[in-house]
Amino acid sequence: MKPSELNVLVIDENRIRAAIIEEGLRGAGYDRVTVIDEMHGLARRIAELNPDVIVIDLENPNRDMLESIFQLSRAVQRPIAMFVDKSDEASIEAAVEAGVSAYIVDGLRQERVRPILKMAISRFNAFSRLNRELEETRGELENRKVIDRAKGLLMRSRGLSEEEAYALLRRTAMNQNRKIAEIAQSLVTAASLLDPGAKE
Amino acid sequence: MTTRHAITAGFVPLLDSALLVVAKEKGFAEAEGVDLTLVRERSWASIRDRLAVSHFDVAHILGPMPIACNLGLSAPAPKMIVPMALGLGGNAVTVSAALWRAMAGEGAKDDLDARGNGAALRRAIGRRRGEPLRFGVVHPYSGHNYELRYWLAASGIDPDRDIEIVVLPPPDMGDALAQGLIDGYCAGEPWNTFGVLERGGHLATVKAAIWKSSPEKVLGVNARWAESHPEALAALLVALHRASLWCARPENHGELAQLLARPAYVGRDAALLLPALSGTLPVGGGIVRQVGDFFVPHAKAATFPWKSHALWFYTQMVRWGQIAHTAGHRRIAAQTYRPDVYRAALTALGVAMPSASAKVEGALTVETPVGSSGALTLGPDGFFDGGRFDPDDVDAYIEMQAARRSGD
Fold first, then answer.
1. What 3-state class would DSSP assign to B133?
2. Are the Cβ atoms of A68 and B42 closer than 8 angstroms?
3. Distance of CA A18 to the CA centre of its chain
4. Complex-level ipTM
5. Rounded to two decimals, what is the model's pTM?
6. Mind listing the domains of chain A with CATH numbers?
7. What's chain B's average pLDDT?
8. Which residue of B has its CA nearest to A58?
9. Residue B279 in domain
10. CA–CA separation, B61 vs B47, rounded Å?
């Protein structure tokens, strides 16, 4: 059996992350990858697929169920949790850190599984990074919107130009050691309190 | 207090995480110099894994799970010890409205009686055609699994042949019941109260009726951490002891329910948490029953890690085919629970505690004063079928249970 012939099952309720892992594994030459994002009927699916390696996100609340399926099933080869090789504590820690857990059919040699685990860890980390960046971008967009509204308020109520309004916000933020977006938010909130009907 | 101890504890959002939550929120940890960080997890597997890689130093964990880990049953993780229990009881068996109707037709009553309602369930199963009934539990190595199986087996129901037992996350139990995916479940709180009040379920019986004063969650500790941080562990045990006293006071139940209801902890309405604390349980159909010892956080040496509890869990692992019985396995099970660590930490407080490390389970039929001070009472600790477990004669108990199984 070549490494690529290992039968890998990815269980993840997050379809995007599952797709990222699947793509990574296929790119590395693992052709037999199955993705499951639906927990219902899991026992039957595992019996049908008879995977050599199962990758699942650590936070999945169904892991207790998954482990009980391994315990009960006499039909499939019994997979065991990845905490097998104590000499490999560093990679186990990296996996838990990244939020991956893996189950490996008993008897399968560690070095055949390690590349899969490594791939899953790096893809999980990449996904988290992507998520963080997305949130940051979303946050920046929100900030820009609130700053625009605050500028509008200043321009109308004090007859400032857009540039002057922005400069005033920036100066206030610097004086108070706060972010421009925070000052803008305070201004928008205050304005809506003073004049609830007004749309700036 | 000069020394500060930073301790990270994992917990699963359940009522019996109360001692850890109270130790932190009511300042008992702080008073002992412990900076306690609580981290919520959604599965016991995750608790185990994070303990193994030292993300957690200690955790709220199922009583049998550290034993299973040390026996190599669930991933050969680093060794764990149990220096304290986190209360007694707290579980119940909830069944669907349809199954309750069938049981009531066979004589089941609203009294939560394990014997009568177990017999009614047996008769209802006898009449049933088609698919076997399906019951949910939270984990294979859980008090829930073992007490459900004990109740069924002693009621003449074979838990492997006559019904099917599946594992589900506790928050999903009520929905699975309402959708007909399962017919009943054994879980901790607030999930029985939730099933009854919001998903049309009915209580069949409670843990305290199957086995009085029986063990449930414990404090699982990474053994390596315990060895290198004996002072921190002792300080935490003192804090948890004080928390258990606080939890036991009826005047604190309302505040405790509010605390646990916070999103960071159980994250459910306080009204779902209060019944288990007060022992006033909605059983279904608007009926309420008082079960005084439903969940016991402090009384009856509720935090004492009895070796006889560890050994009873071990006998059930053997009984249900999870592990072979050997003298070596029995020793590992007994050594997982550490009353010596408990005593060493709490002796200085003058706390009344048992002088023995194990007791004959099921021997006390009434509340019984123990120890010279008379400040401590134990029991009753009876099994509903009158069974007794002598921890000095594990072999005989295992043989007796095996014989009963092959004999039917």
1. strand
2. no
3. 10
4. 0.87
5. 0.86
6. 3-132 (3.40.50), 136-194 (1.10.10.10)
7. 94
8. B46
9. no
10. 7
